[in-house]
Amino acid sequence: MKLKFGVIILAVFLLAGCSSNINYDDKNNVEFTRLNQENTLDVGSDQIRILSANTTVGYEEYASISIIGKPEETYTITSRYKWGGEDVTVVEKRKANRDGVATWVWKVRSNTIPGTYPIVITGGNQRIETSYTVRP
Description:
Residues 1-24 form the signal peptide. The chain is mainly β.
């Protein structure tokens, strides 16, 4: 819970001009770098935008993505990946805070097959697609 709260607080700071690419180490330290504008979807004033993402990761590292959309809206992330010999689909919901920020963080385990996998985030009648890459 403290990690999620810390990530949300850091994401709010990003709105004030900090940079944004979350990089977690084993001590849960966080580092940010700004993403390019092509990672946004223009759907009006309440658009979903990728606020930050750490989406190129190795085994036992944390991947993350934060979006900004409508305040208090529920957003759903869907991703597929290969784990061992199986195809896995993950669906997880998050409610955006009062600033419209929602964040997902996950750990990439060692039996995940290296490759690039799709991410789709939906909510508030909006949709944005991106991907994450697992390196060996």
